[in-house]
Amino acid sequence: MLFTTFSVEKSLLYYKGGEFSAHNSWCHRRMFHKGDYELILCLKGPIYLQVGDKQLTLQANEIAIIPPFTQMFGYRDSTSPVDFYWLHFFSQTKESIFEADEAAMLSEIKTNKNSKHRLSLPLHFELRDYEGATILIHQILSIHNELSSIEERDYLVSALLIQLYKSYFNRLDVQGNSSKIDDMKEWIRANMASDLTVAKIATNMHLNVDYLTRLFKKCTGMTTLQYLNHVKIEVAILLLIRTEMPIKQVADAAYFNDPKVFMHRFKSSTGLSPSEYRKAYNLIHLNNPHVDPQIPIPKRIADSIDYIPENGNVPE
């Protein structure tokens, strides 16, 4: 399995990004990455990509990472509707691509043999907990702070890579229990409209309440009740940033029976009211006909990384 490293000792540098969707037959145009990484999160697929000499079929909730100095193009048309986020960034460190076994990588991480400032991610993998990454990418794409002396998007891109790293390797670490946890999460999501309690979840999963709580905490980092609230808030955020649904309807759709409770918990979790959140994070680059516009590398990137040539199309 192919992995790439990412050093986060210095922040990654945001370059450009957006969301693209197509309802008719579509094929990705030919591109060449001359120093930047591209991360693609597929929301609707399949998307057929050839990256270098390898062909990928991206389905919903799958991630592809395209390394620098790589040619990429669609090797066949997607006849079903497609929708995906695309995000380009630079590393301030020379990274490497290597082949490794997942189990060996996990063992190395658990024994702390790898640097705490260096991440490793597969070039293609399924993202189980896709909601958090979707929200974070949308936040990155919504920020327009050209006048700020601090480039917030750089730090959010670094946070995104850390989140993906933790999500991927935590899944491997609890693989023996992952099926049970996944079943539990699916049951919780399917029954969110009812008045759920830890005891009710434990009864449905045929588990002791204490054991369920310990298992859930180990596999997710949250208690069962924290996860219930987390899911409700994530549903609300996704509805706020991806629909025009009125706030009261968002509260109902996110399984809050009382709008006042919704407002209180939302602001407690995000620091913003629902309307403030929507206003802050609803402006992103949508449906560019070329998907990936050619723009000059910002001066702040060029000043930080002097070995990267200008991005552009495939050389003649």
From TrEMBL:
Residues 182-280 form the HTH araC/xylS-type domain. The keyword Disulfide bond does not apply. PROSITE patterns: HTH_ARAC_FAMILY_2. It comes from the Bacteria. Keywords: DNA-binding, Transcription, Transcription regulation. Pfam families: AraC_binding, HTH_18. One of its GO terms (molecular function) is sequence-specific DNA binding. InterPro entries: AraC-bd, Homeodomain-like_sf, HTH-like, HTH_AraC. This is AraC family transcriptional regulator.
